[in-house]
Amino acid sequence: MQHFTLAYLAEYLGAELVFSEHEEDSNNANVLEITRIATLESAQSGQISFLANKKYRKQLETTQASAVILTQADAKYYTGNKLVLADPYVAYAKLAQLMDTTPKSASGIHSSAVIHADAIVSESASIGANAVIEVGAIIGDDCQIGPGCFIGRNAKLGSNCKIWANATIYHEVVLGDNCIIHANAVIGSDGFGFANEQGKWIKIPQLGSVVLGSNVEIGASTTVDRGALGDTEIHSNVIIDNQCQIAHNVVIGQGTAMAACSVIAGSSKIGQYCQIAGLCGINGHIEVCDKVILTGMAMVISSITEPGVYSSGIPHSKNRDWRKQMTHLRHIGDMNKKIKELEKLSASLVKVE
Question: How many other β-carbons are positioned within 10 Å of the β-carbon of residue 66?
């Protein structure tokens, strides 16, 4: 188990360390060791917590944490040991990295791994059981390829990539440095390309590939299709959650985040630093500019040209209320027609007067 003193954690985070107002706690703070992070509600002695949402401020009165990370504005509400800084949530992220106990996806080269003689695998890379590395593939320094993974012909992985179990990287796909691909994700499968000839679907081979920048994370069971002619591009520092679908020739700009179960149809371009919430649908062949936020279940059917927050999902309501609303919705056309008739009648009456 890891142990960190409060003084070390304060220095690591660049935080101000303020000792407890209780003398006995303050005397122990210099030697107090922290072993893990926990929520305010569940934290025990020897653990550190954080307050990033004011709705949990009441829990400061009852938390058993040995220290809490707070903003200057919230520090006055807590009398125990505290680390004070501008953004407790970012501090939490950095501490989670420091205390991370997640194992490697692979360690060493397993005897059951199948590695083509013409693949180039760094001496510092690790390949798990039953993984397959095809001809021409390049695996960079310190990469971890988990059990059951498939790395296709001429695929290229930069340094320090971590590929979890059973992920599939198709032929010609390129990953930058420090990418994380979670279990069962598929990178480079065929885009949905077909031509119809008198009722018969003619498959269009997808001749492009997928190119990921550096520090990209792709969630479990997410699929990123290869381009039809050019490449599908996911730029650096993009994070994509589980069970998302990225269609062929999509381009996602740097720093964009996409939550679970959202989908982007083919040939659309998403700008930089966008935030796409869960269950969003983005139409094909459109553009979304930089710094757009889509709230949950938003349906984007045309290009967005101005930064801002956009919504279209319908919040839940009681079933009987929803049924009434849907009944009214079905009659909107008739209502609109009657309103126009009344407007015409009103206008004619004004003229007569």
Answer: 23
